[in-house]
Write a structure and sequence with these properties.
Bound molecules: adenosine-5'-triphosphate
CATH superfamily of one domain: P-loop containing nucleotide triphosphate hydrolases
Helix content: 25-40%
Pfam family, one: ABC_tran
Strand content: 15-25%
Keywords: ATP-binding, Nucleotide-binding, Transport
CATH class of one domain: Alpha Beta
Organism: Xanthobacter aminoxidans
Low-confidence stretches: 5-9
CATH architecture of one domain: 3-Layer(aba) Sandwich
Shape: globular
Mean pLDDT: 89
Number of helices: 6
Largest sheet: 6 strands, mixed
Number of strands: 10
Distance between the termini: 32 Å
Structural class: alpha/beta
InterPro entries: AAA+_ATPase (IPR003593), ABC_transporter-like_ATP-bd (IPR003439), ABC_transpr_CbiO/EcfA_su (IPR015856), ECF_ABC_transporter_ATP-bd (IPR050095), P-loop_NTPase (IPR027417)
Protein name: ABC transporter ATP-binding protein
Order of helices and strands: EEEHEEEHHHEHEEEH
CATH topology of one domain: Rossmann fold
Length: 256
Amino acid sequence: MSEMPAAADMRPATAPFARLAGVEVTRGARTVFSNLNLTLTERRIGLVGDNGSGKSTLLRLLNGLILPDTGTVTVEGLDTRRDRRKLPATVGFVFQNVDHQIIFPSVREEIAFGPIQQGTPKAEANAAADRLLARHGCAGWGDRAVSDLSEGQKQLVCILSALAAGPSVLLLDEPFSSLDLTTRLTLASRLGALDVTLVMASHDVDLFAGFERVIWLKGGEVAADGAPADIVPLYEADARARAELAIGRQAGRAFP
Ligand SMILES: Nc1ncnc2c1ncn2[C@@H]1O[C@H](COP(=O)(O)OP(=O)(O)OP(=O)(O)O)[C@@H](O)[C@H]1O
């Protein structure tokens, strides 16, 4: 299992980088958050919770992809409603589903897109993309068609694209689910060492061992919030208890 190490030489977190105040969000017919209040200060924050508990919605609130129906969300001093256009230069996002992120045919174009949007000349952005690829063991990938990559390779390209834009906050939604163990361990270690604030949702709770804070979401509410060593066992015990209950109910019934 992969464990993301704590960053050693990182500037200490002092002021909050994000705040959610009185946030209500409805998606479709469902109220996901009814009054969510969070202050985020730590440089390594993990989100855990069952499917549908609100992890992706919280990450999308932080990058302005979803705006609160009521309440406010501020990240690095930017109000996600008022300053939406400034957010992409500050807040990077790695989607759970690579097809929601990748828009260009070649790997180099995909990675260079963010910096070009921010005003970097194309040749410079392309050269930086190639250097970034080489640093992550993907030298020569620049001209490759994204459509020819495996799911895990696409996931890696998505992570590198997010990093290329030089965000100060990186939001990761299940970023390693398709990566092989070697790439997962390498990338987790590299991400852990970056001087960038990370907020990551994952079902792979071992990744949070070096984190400073884990928030457990349950049905759109914060069920527990604190140090990984305290929160992860609570979540696991709760998940196991509910699984045992479900298995007990199923006992004797034929599997459909
Ligand atoms: N596009 C949508 N339209 C309507 N409802 C949605 C939409 N996306 C999510 N939801 C609902 O919002 C709730 C929270 O979903 P969300 O994707 O934030 O959960 P999650 O914790 O990230 O789940 P997972 O672990 O499966 O990724 C769920 O009840 C889900 O059904």
